Amino acid sequence: MSSAKEDIQYLIELVRKDLMIKEKKNILYLNPLKIKEIVEKILVLEEALNEKDELLKKMEKEERHLNSIIEEDSDKIQKKKTEENSIKTNAAYQAWEHEIQYLASKVEMHEERMFGVLEEIDKGKKELSLFSDDVEVRKEKLMLEKSELEKDVENSKKRLDIIEDEKLRILPHLSEKIRKEYQKILNAKGDTAIANLSGDVCQGCFSRMPPQKAHEVRRNNKIITCEFCGRILVYYPEKEKIENHE
């Protein structure tokens, strides 16, 4: 039969395992959320890049349209000029001249717009190139972060299985009475049935213990429970709280 001192040493091992289990479960809960955020950030970057690309394509389309109109109206002007020698009356000549001026004004207007569009296209290409490079750098960084989180998840799954198995191997070493008490408290609390005493504060509920009770807990020679949260209190140095983070 295990003595109280022996039980407490096993309880210390159990609480360390429980804390490691909690740590790994937190990773398994939080990392997928972080991965989701990263994927969303990448999608936002890609959408922004696509928007800039679509805007550039829209301007290039307008350039082609303007170029087509200018060529068409320029051809009309050239064709009209060939009709000059066949004009018989002043009225017809004025109408002919007015039409050429109208076509010329259209060409001039479209050429002016073309000049602005070409400037926008040149500026857009430069901006797109710079933004594309920036997006690739940021995506690469995000993908690396995502990969590290995914590796952490896989490693945590493996470690969790190992730690839980190690914990199961400790339980039979407890005295039957303490093992039943441990299981009862664990079922009630859900995370751990044991809490380390740091200074005079229970690390399960962070309540302060009376000095005499804290002193008794630190001796690790009898089973004492926290009067606030009901967990079994043990003591070990904080720097040894969690071992083997692999």
Q: Summed up, what is this model?
A:
By secondary structure, this protein is mainly alpha-helical. 74% of the residues lie in helices and 5% in strands. A hairpin with a 2-residue loop joins strand 1 and strand 2.
Specify the CATH architecture: Orthogonal Bundle
* Average of per-residue pLDDT values: 93
What does the largest sheet look like? 4 strands, mixed
Lateral strand order in the biggest sheet:
2-1-4-3
Task: Decide which structural class fits the backbone.
Answer: mainly alpha
Which descriptor suits the 3D outline? rod-shaped
Total number of β-strand segments? 4
Number of helices: 4
Q: How many structural domains?
A: 1
Please mark out the parts with pLDDT under 50 across 5 or more consecutive residues, or reply none.
240-246
CATH class wording = Mainly Alpha
Strand content range: under 5%
How far apart are the termini? 34 Å
Helicity range: over 70%
Task: Please trace the helix and strand order, writing H or E for each element.
Answer: HHHEEHEE
Describe this structure in words.
- The protein has helices at residues 4-81, 90-170, 176-189, 211-219; strands at 194-198, 201-202, 224-225, 232-234.
- By secondary structure, the chain is mainly alpha-helical.
- The chain is rod-shaped and about 130 Å long.
- A 4-stranded mixed sheet has the order 2-1-4-3.
- The protein has 4 helices and 4 strands, in the order H-H-H-E-E-H-E-E.
- It has a single domain, classed as Helix Hairpins (Orthogonal Bundle).
